[in-house]
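Lab notebook, page 48
Experiment: co-folding of the full assembly
Goal: obtain a model of how the components sit together before planning crosslinking
Operator: M.T.
Materials (sequences as entered):
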Amino acid sequence: MTRQIRLNGFIGFSPVHLSPGLWAHPASRGADYNTLDYWVDIAKVLERGKFDALFIADGIGVHDVYGGNADAAIRSGAQFPKLDPLMLVSALAHETKDLGFGITASTSHELPAVLARRFSSLDHFTQGRIGWNIVTGYSDSGARAVGREKVIAHDTRYDRADEFLEVAYKLWESSWEDAAVVRDRASGTFADPSRVHRVRHEGRHFDIDTIHLTEPSLQRTPYLFQAGASPRGRAFAARHAEAVFVGGPTPASIAPGIADIRARAAALGRDPRDIAVFTLATAIPARSRAEADDKLADYRRYTDPDGVLALFSGWTGIDFSAFDLDAPLTLSEVKENAVQSLLETFTVAEPDRVWTLREIIAHNGIGGRGPLFAGTPADIADELEAWVAAADVDGFNLSHAFFPDTFTDVVDLLVPELQRRGLYKQDYETGTLRGKLSGSDRLKETHAGAAYRRLSEAA
Amino acid sequence: MTRQIRLNGFIGFSPVHLSPGLWAHPASRGADYNTLDYWVDIAKVLERGKFDALFIADGIGVHDVYGGNADAAIRSGAQFPKLDPLMLVSALAHETKDLGFGITASTSHELPAVLARRFSSLDHFTQGRIGWNIVTGYSDSGARAVGREKVIAHDTRYDRADEFLEVAYKLWESSWEDAAVVRDRASGTFADPSRVHRVRHEGRHFDIDTIHLTEPSLQRTPYLFQAGASPRGRAFAARHAEAVFVGGPTPASIAPGIADIRARAAALGRDPRDIAVFTLATAIPARSRAEADDKLADYRRYTDPDGVLALFSGWTGIDFSAFDLDAPLTLSEVKENAVQSLLETFTVAEPDRVWTLREIIAHNGIGGRGPLFAGTPADIADELEAWVAAADVDGFNLSHAFFPDTFTDVVDLLVPELQRRGLYKQDYETGTLRGKLSGSDRLKETHAGAAYRRLSEAA
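Observation: model returned without errors.
Model output:
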């Protein structure tokens, strides 16, 4: 069977996610980001297009590196303000049947027993359609919001996250046996106490003694997404992730990292194909190339340069407000690695070209650091196929210029083309998010979390 | 105008809340407590009855004092398992228009900036219908779940909660000016940075430096419920609460506490009537007294004595598993205060009677420690009127035997009787929860939180 391409909708809980300025396009509903109807409509469009999940980015910081303050982010609505995606899920769950939800939550400002209960609650409400995008928090701005002057050192964050997951697995997988809940009205027995177990954990970061507060949900452990790109992040992903989220401008720029994660997973005894890899992209399909060009040109008129630079500065740690927009970017003037990472987004694609910041803003103001595919459905399907073949990705986290246009265009134009090619499902399979993505409602036996399940069954 | 009686629906996120065993009644849907449809239907019934709010109890502990373990709670489904009410709100918000939500969340296992964002998100989704029932956590069981061997000492908990609220007020009231968000498409300005302010707080318990992550919602600060009954709890309520939740078997048993809270509020410069007082009760209305008696007798056949004692033991700290069910209860055998509090539930009502534990279980197995009113709508309306007059309460947090029967009976039988008497609104007023309950969308000028607003406006 031809390898199927999977799609998630990728969006932040703000007026603007990766396309600063586009909220102001006359057709955009981005200014309504704080209403339930906006999100219900997004979820329904994605479900109509048989997307696997709505993937919601999050973080508790504000981009305040550019100009040394948050003014550009605030003015342009670039990833700010920002509501809490965990609070949103139940409304979308009630209005959909098959769409999954990839919800970002940080191990750095939640307690394991409390967050584990939250995801279990959502897994009940969605009947097994919840995924957790595990993040550990990367910004100083976010750290200051919760009372730490600087973000916890990178590797310490991951050590803490490893232990957080260990505690969560114990709660999700070992506290309640499958046969524990009987709901027997005749005897008045809701659950069998002999099959419900207390979890005790004394570790370096956490120390708990509790029964998991919820009965088992369909997936028990939520489907686990992760996006770490560093070596330590990849080690974490190889152990915990069932899907990873990567990003880069070309297949060649992401292929080595993907191969590394799959190899690390194999070294841990997992099937490297048990990790679904989604890469960031934005697709602007139209009925002709001319129409696509026009559409893109129209969108780009709304790009907000300050908003774009607020994101670039936030991501790289470099204050681009001091830069001449029209001078060629060179690596010598600032921290090499960060400008390198910005330049790589383009130089890999056009290795002989010299870029100015203004050109980068224009080129990359829609969809952030991922590729932007604008063209006919056939053009874009060709691109996606090429990426899958060259980079070994399983699918795409599709960003948008704005809602509704980008996602409705993808659903109405691109999805049918992928289906015609046999590259995309004709309909959802039934069942949980994990079942749809991996064929199993529960963690596979080779996943780190399954070890806690076996311990429980032996008890 | 006759004083209006206000009603909230009071329920926990479990198969059973205050009526152990009743989930197994053939008409009960309690076993579906973990589905969205169950809750959406509850919300719609309450809204049909023009209830002010659905009030959801919560706590992260399990009742494990009875028999020294959680077996009885687990077996009977008594307040266990227990899902997270914060996760539920958006689905109910999308299916209702006027009903408010009183959601319990603890200051002991959340971070102020994170929880403040959660409530702001819910205030956006509900268009100003969210209330926060502030709890500080009272059980050792809950403390162990989050890594503290014993619950934090009572007064320390309240000191921490006071500072938590101070931080939250700063975020809600002072970070964004009313005029900050402009959503001006022509200039591409989402918000005016000069009207968005960083909140710096260095305190004993919290130390933060952040902009509140959400723009102002209709209420800004959620409507504040609180239920502390101790002197320290009352001091907290007098300062922070806009509604308090009390409970007792007779008007005389609660009147002094209510008068004390109102007096404390007045001493702080507030109008004592700006605190709405709700007292716990369960109403079982029927078309005749005989039918009410039959209904109650039918319900009581399902009472689960072990489940009832699991609650009693959890609330009092006394392990009632060692007690002879048929011996008269005396104060000498165990800690006086706790048995006193259990006995008071009955002896105040029938001062000359000696009670056995079995009688208390039968008498109080439905609706917990509040009064149980079973009778015709006129009988129950008389009782409610008498309580309002004698105890100076503003309304009732109505518990139920099970859903749907109790709430539908109240809505179909009792509410029309109260309306006929001019004691109950004919329809909702429009607007926010605070607007409906106090006439103002925002905190009143005399409320502690308003001081932070003024600081901001002066800045």
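Interpretation: Chain B touches chain A through 74 residues (CB under 8 Å).
Next step: discuss with group before ordering constructs.
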